[in-house]
Amino acid sequence: MSVSDELFAEALKVMPGGVSSPVRAYRSVGGTPRFVKRALGSHIVDVDDKRYVDLVCSWGPMIAGHAHPEVVAAVQQAVADSTSFGAPSEVELRLAQAVVARMGGAIDKVRFTCSGTEAVMTAARLARGITKRPLLVKFVGCYHGHSDSFLVAAGSGVASLGLPDSPGVPKEVAGDTVALPYGRIDLVEELFAERGDQVAAIVTEGVPANMGVIVPPEGFNRRLHDIAHAHGALLIQDEVLTGFRLSPTGAWGLQGAKEGWTPDLFTFGKVIGGGMPLAAVGGSAQLMDYLAPEGPVYQAGTLSGNPAACAAGLATLALMDDAAYSRLDATADRVSAMADEALESAGVPHRINKVSNLFSVFLTDAPVTDFASASKQDTKAFSRFFHAALDAGLWLAPSGFEAWFCSTALDDDDLEVIDAGLHKAAQAAAQ
Ligand code: PLP
């Protein structure tokens, strides 16, 4: 019995499913989750002292690798002055300025929260408060955190575990969220033609990545923006996962910034907290000033804008200059090409969806464009692929409905391990 097995058996007694977040439990791939004791750079070390090359990056935040000396120093300095003040601090201001500056005029102000869930929940409340309308429009398979309004046809762990919409979400609340198949602008138009005057906001992932990565159809997000505006609704672009990862200005940098449109509200998380609990809502001063205490829409948090979290985020953003993004993109190109080649040579049907440095490997022979097509992947083959990769020292997300995350810490030695591991994984998937 491994130390992970022993700890998991103990954890099951005091934590539902033995975990603090469902997808960590390996339910969709089977087996016992590895307990991690340390991570440094591109490597994770489990409690049995096995080392893995990390392609999950804590589900996105660890873009510059684990325990980067500059992030560690910033956090150490911050916590030496206390872990929380419950009052404004300079580091919080500096992070707000850095986020606003990096978004190049797309936003004027941010409100920090402790999680992406809270950020999207806040953006939705803002949109409803501003428009005085009830409805939210989302897309099937997109994940926007686990608040009541968004546990409707959600992606990520909800998709991996094959859960229907969660018990505990009142039907009155769920009824105010309309979920449409991703990419179907005709259905969005139809909905707005019928109920456009009731819609507060369309909420979408800039690039969907929680049913695996889906490449948005050309012009799709722009059309969402235009349709929302034509009907007095807002567009909320959820960039919790893609923000400051897909480009220095996230998914928006690849789309709206080039096409000349801007979502009304953004949500950010993951990268901007550098691995600490931190996320944000951002938008124009006009919209953001509806938030209390400036405006009437209430939102608050004991630990919001936590100084250690802001220090980690600020240090992480500082590391992500243009050269870092180029390196990240080049690494992701290589890793995705390796996965493609390994699966091809093992004769495993697969599709790789990729947008800049974010990609997913779907074990299916048909194009994956939405949740329905993502669900056609061979999950049994993926389980074999995942476990063989784990044995070979690759830390992959334990679900085929997730993105693969690269970090700037991956080096040529890691890429060799990845290449060898992916070949073993592909052979296992082929059996
Ligand atoms: N929105 C998106 C696009 C996400 O990917 C996630 C988490 O994966 C969330 C919101 C929720 O963020 P958190 O897990 O920090 O609550």
From TrEMBL:
Pfam families: Aminotran_3. Its cofactor is pyridoxal 5'-phosphate. It is an enzyme of class 5 (isomerase). Its EC number is 5.4.3.8. Pathway: Porphyrin-containing compound metabolism; protoporphyrin-IX biosynthesis; 5-aminolevulinate from L-glutamyl-tRNA(Glu): step 2/2. It catalyses: (S)-4-amino-5-oxopentanoate = 5-aminolevulinate. GO terms for cellular component: cytoplasm. One of its GO terms (molecular function) is glutamate-1-semialdehyde 2,1-aminomutase activity. The keyword Secreted does not apply. Signal peptide: none annotated. Belongs to the class-III pyridoxal-phosphate-dependent aminotransferase family. HemL subfamily. PANTHER family: GLUTAMATE-1-SEMIALDEHYDE 2,1-AMINOMUTASE, GLUTAMATE-1-SEMIALDEHYDE 2,1-AMINOMUTASE 1, CHLOROPLASTIC-RELATED. This is Glutamate-1-semialdehyde 2,1-aminomutase. It comes from Propionibacterium freudenreichii subsp. shermanii (strain ATCC 9614 / DSM 4902 / CIP 103027 / NCIMB 8099 / CIRM-BIA1).
